[in-house]
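tmp note - Aspartate aminotransferase-like enzyme
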Amino acid sequence: MTDALWTPLADVPPFPAAGFAPLADALARVLRTKNDLLLVQAEAAVALEAVAQSLGRPGLRALVLVSSLYGRWFAGWLRRAGAHVRELAAPPGQPMAAPEVAKALASERFDLVFVVHAENAYGILNPLEDIAALVKAQGALLVVDAVASVGGHALDVDALGADLVVIGPQKALGGQAGVSAVAVSAAAWERVAPPGEAPSVLSLADLRAGWLETGRKALPGTPSALEFHALAQTLAQVEREGLSALQERHASAARAARAGALVLTGQAWVAPEQASNLVTAVALPEGISAAQVLDVAGPGMRFRPGSDRGASG
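out:
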């Protein structure tokens, strides 16, 4: 290959097998958990589907809290596996209301409850602590999609009692999207389907057998060196800055963005305690469209119209 054709992106050195366990340990520190940590060699939607496929089966009763398309996807994956699923949808663009969750939990028995912590589609934050307390009081497994909250909001997995938590490094942590992770509690492992005839990336049991039960050495398959080198650098940067400082940096930027939006529009999308620290949603004044705002946005300004595929879409 000539020098003119060479690129470092196509000539990445292998990621050392001894480096995977430290990555998992660093992610566990970010999540504040002693639960098992699985590395998934794909973006976080695959990890979410793996959780659904590993838990879903006929007879399982699940309550899925739907505040965007991710809840609908998770419900669909569970149904595909044969589970009985009840969806509880938030008003479009709004967070879940804990009293409504309490009513649903009081109305029937559930084995599993799914919730998304923060929603980038609408710039909202669901009341995870309140929901977790309700779920644990019933004895159900708590599954949390924390992809859009980890690093930007406080998240203490063990204090919450969350059983399965899915994260990706591509949002508040500042990394890339090609790798994700799942924290799995002992209670969750008791409900996970056993390994199948052939290993599958959608089987948590297979992921455990291929890595945790072999001493956390080389990951099964052929890991993508580029993504894991990027993850290592991302986590090193998080540790240099400090997790609390990182969360405050996102919170400070969000407070400033919300204050500016309030001055410009005269109204807040949601209350500050219900707002995401990663994306600030703005309700436009009467007579101004999202297309008009996008047309006048200058270079480097990050605006996009809100999703219309929400909880009721």
